[in-house]
Amino acid sequence: MPTRDRPDPATVTPPDPSMPGALGALLDVLERQAERHEALLELVRRKREAIRTARIDDIVALCAEEQRQVVALNTLEEQRLDIVERMLPPEQAGAAPVVRLADVLSGVDPVHAAELQRRAESLRLSMEQLKGESSVVNAAAQTLARHLAGLMQTVQTALSQVGVYERRGRIALGARLESCVDVTS
Question: Which residues contact 7 (CB under 8 A, 6 or more apart)?
Answer without folding.
Answer: 75, 78, 79, 82
